[in-house]
Amino acid sequence: MVVENRLEEDTTVHWHGIRLPNAMDGVPGLTQPPIKPGERFVYEFMPPDAGTFWYHPHANSLQQLGRGLAGALIVEEAEPVQVDRDVLWVLADWRLDSDGNIAPGFGNPMEAAMSGRVGNSVTLNGSVPQDQVVRAGERVRLRLINVSLARIMALRFGGHSPVVVAIDGQPCDPHEPDGGRLLLAPAMRLDLIVDMQGEPGRRYAVIDDYYDGLAYQLTSFAYRGEKPLRVNPLDAPLRLPRNPLPEPDLQNAERHEMVLQGGMPSMRNMMGGGKMQGMSGMQGGMAGHGRAIWSINGTSMTGDGHAEMPPLITLKQGRSHYVTMRNETAWWHPMHLHGFSFRVLNRNGAPVLHNQWADTVLLAPKDTVDIAFVADNPGDWMLHCHVTDHQTAGLMTVIRVA
Ligand code: C2O
Ligand code: CU
Ligand code: CU
């Protein structure tokens, strides 16, 4: 891919979720020099895994991603599952002012200490969502990507039973989501198989009810009047072919712990008088480039990533590593690791089902999550929260594999 920078500022492109050589990872200052205005950079790699991925700049991320620089990257399977249609929904959140322009005020420190810049308008593939026209009886593979800066989504498909077949591009055991709710935080992807079992001529709402009291209808499945394509759901396997991921050896894995701290102590303090209290003491260990509000193991890398901070840990190349992440904050964090897909093993002590791999794992307030992976790819790799305000305000670090 040849990337030509026609912006008036530096940029890079990061290929989110693709396991690629470190020099192609797109982190300015860390894996490459920034692409200056008018310059080009050639990204060259062989994606080892089929699946649903995406790309976005890793420079001035709040503005560049927040103003729409994001795209889907789909690597097709050699032998795809049998479906009638393969459909992509890139979901993006925008904060618009009353004229419909993108509202200024990126990087507001108060927001950065809370849930980040959540907007007021969600688009589907770049437009205000229209009805999704479907035919009764068809089987659709639906690829969801949340490219929002901060908005977490929880989708419900009224009258339908979507089956999750891949998470962050990596196949899992096909399963229906807990409570029928598809949780999709920034940067996360889900591949679904949906059998359109509704009635011809009817409309079924797709609701996002993640935020209490702020449920809205994202779109709807609008059935054409014609007779069903087939009476019973297609009799074909749902399981995707597996990708060549190295399986971590849990018995002999090296153990590590990562503790997430910072932000406002709780919603209650935000309402009460004690504003910003929980943030004092969080300034230690910050590495320039803006204010630190969050930390990982007591250190904070801010901005978009840069080379000045030593790696938090060095992982022995070729070995299996078992990482426990503890969220001691009062906020949700989709934690993303560059360059690897990791197994998601346990959440709060209970095993995570359905053989899940991910590159971005969502931690609820006070959650503890265990992940594991083989450090087979050398280099300096970012680990950060994908709520962009959290990332740029310190919830970011570098992990070295050597
Ligand atoms: Cu989409 Cu640094 O990541
Ligand atoms: Cu990434
Ligand atoms: Cu976060």
Automatic annotation (TrEMBL):
Domain Plastocyanin-like, chain residue ranges per copy: 3-78, 113-208, 303-401
Highest taxon of the lineage: Bacteria
Assigned keywords, A-Z: Metal-binding, Oxidoreductase
InterPro entries found in the cross-reference section: Cu-oxidase-like_N, Cu-oxidase_2nd, Cu-oxidase_C, Cu-oxidase_fam, Cu_oxidase_CS, Cu_oxidase_Cu_BS, Cupredoxin
Classification via SUPFAM superfamilies: Cupredoxins
PANTHER family the record matches: MULTI-COPPER OXIDASE, MULTICOPPER OXIDASE LPR1
Protein name per its UniProtKB record: FtsP/CotA-like multicopper oxidase with cupredoxin domain
Originating species: Aminobacter niigataensis
Taxonomic lineage from the root: Bacteria, Pseudomonadati, Pseudomonadota, Alphaproteobacteria, Hyphomicrobiales
